[in-house]
Amino acid sequence: MTSIIKIENLSKTYASGFQALRNINLEIREGEIIALLGPNGAGKTTLISIVCGIVNPSGGRVTIGGYDIVKDYRAARTMIGLVPQELATDAFETVTATFAFSRGVFGKKADPAHLEATLKALSLYDKKDSKIITLSGGMKRRVMIGKALSHEPRILFLDEPTAGVDVELRKDMWNVVRKLKESGVTIILTTHYIDEAEEMADRIGVINKGELILVEDKDVLMQKLGEKRLILHLTKPVTDLPAGLSAYRLELQNQGKSLVYTYDANQSESADIAHLLDAIAAAGIQFKDLETRQNSLEEIFVNLVKK
Amino acid sequence: MNIYAIRAIYKFEMARTFRTIAQSIISPVVSTSLYFVVFGSAIGSRMNDVDGISYGAFLVPGLIMLSILTESISNASFGIYFPRFIGTIYEILSAPVSPLEIVIGYVGAAASKSLMIGSIILATAALFVPLQILHPFTMLVFLVLTSITFSMFGFIIGIWADSFEKLQIIPLLIITPLTFLGGSFYSINMLPEVWQTITLFNPVVYLVSGFRWSFYEISDVDIITSLLMTGLFLFICSVFLYWIFKTGYRLKK
Ligand SMILES: Nc1ncnc2c1ncn2[C@@H]1O[C@H](COP(=O)(O)OP(=O)(O)O)[C@@H](O)[C@H]1O
Ligand SMILES: [Mg+2]
Hints:
The complex is a heterodimer of chains A (307) and B (253).
Chain A: E1 3-13, E2 19-29, E3 33-37, H1 44-51, E4 59-64, E5 67-68, H2 73-78, E6 80-83, H3 95-105, H4 112-121, H5 137-149, E7 155-159, H6 167-182, E8 186-191, H7 194-200, E9 203-208, E10 211-217, H8 218-226, E11 227-234, E12 250-253, E13 258-264, H9 272-282, E14 287-294, H10 297-306
Parallel strand pairs in A: 3-8, 3-9, 6-7, 7-8
Antiparallel strand pairs in A: 1-2, 1-4, 4-5, 9-10, 11-13, 11-14, 12-13
Helix pairs in contact in A: 3-5
Chain B: H1 3-19, H2 21-43, H3 55-86, H4 89-94, H5 99-128, H6 136-160, H7 164-180, H8 193-199, H9 203-216, H10 223-247
Helix pairs in contact in B: 1-2, 1-5, 2-3, 2-5, 3-5, 3-6, 3-7, 3-9, 5-6, 6-9, 6-10, 9-10
The complex binds adenosine-5'-diphosphate and magnesium ion.
């Protein structure tokens, strides 16, 4: 797959001296949904803001569709739409007027059909002539999404799209996102909710303290997530594993006091547990207790972030 | 050129003007009419003619300039400060728009509004005092140049300001005194000699003087000097704006 955004050695130090990004390298593939996952203050917004031209980078290079975001900013920015984290709308304008404005500043001629489709997709059609000040918070968020889509961008940035958003809007938004993806739009979203990344993304990048710690296909990450461990607390410590157990992924831990069996919970091989326990009994190993543990994405994440 | 962007910004700004038509157009007209009534008719009838022109008629160019300056600055500064304040500026910053296009959109809209107000005041003035315009083209040049220059100046203030107080402090502390002392209400010749010299450091003097010349062919300073100074001011504002966009000053973090 070709990459549509290339971020090379990107760093950002704010005027305050605070280094918000350290040497970020990331390629975003055309047509994918990538989630940038990280705790508050990790640098997600900073990263997106640099790519979109709102914050000046301190070092490094970004290209969008092959165009440098500084030198060829026009060509680069024409492709993007941004829904920022903070709610910011013109209070006294109508919904239609702000959509028209957004399309205009991105250099496109008015298109009533697209305007209508956008209004409808976001359930804003009834409100199209309402002043934005009269809309609820959720409606305003829809307006911001609509503005970002008004010029038919090829790449959409959603910065913390569901923070403080009601269930219905969340559902609507994911529907819109899915349709956009089907039509080939690349979507970059940031979130600090793991389940959100899990639900939507094809790939997940983890950011912490300004560093991109990991970028992985979600499925690969889920595989790790799917790994389960069965831990047997042994009555007597064991120094070596009996040969009869070599067929299983077993490991001795805790000075031989625990026997750990790692298996994939997604696979039916888990039925093997019965056989394993038989084999252990046959080997003469006794245990006083047992437990199972699952690596959640949360756990993977916490481990990564602790390092 | 991203023509659609210029048009979008311009239209958006003009819509704001027409939405607040009362405060944006009617109020300057009312306040200048009051000037005409008070200074032109009531007090003016007891004042001597200035350089052969009745005081009421003498006031007209100065009052128009006064409105153009204050309106240009307040409209342009508010126009760009407001999106910064409420956060909608992100959209302009992320759009494929060049600094020049942004300036044309915002400054163009503010200048258009000033021109509208200037014309309305001129028409209103004609109701109160006998007017003549000897050099309509020169008048228009001054009107347009001043509107653009001071809208640019306002735009700069709108980018510099980081609070509503700061937005108002420059117009209040600098522009208002400069315009009042800039010969809107009197001829510089009426001042003591020392003050005549000091006054020449006030840029507004050149605008008012040149503008008045286009009406009555009377001026405190040479018309060419006036035009050159106006041009110089425009140039200085342009350089400033260029620098602001080049460095991203207060627009980008
Ligand atoms: N304008 C700024 N000046 C100084 N520091 C900033 C500025 N903007 C953000 N930061 C700091 O940079 C870090 C990353 O912020 P941000 O990118 O907003 O994180 P995230 O979106 O992941 O929560 C935070 O510690 C924040 O305090
Ligand atoms: Mg953020």
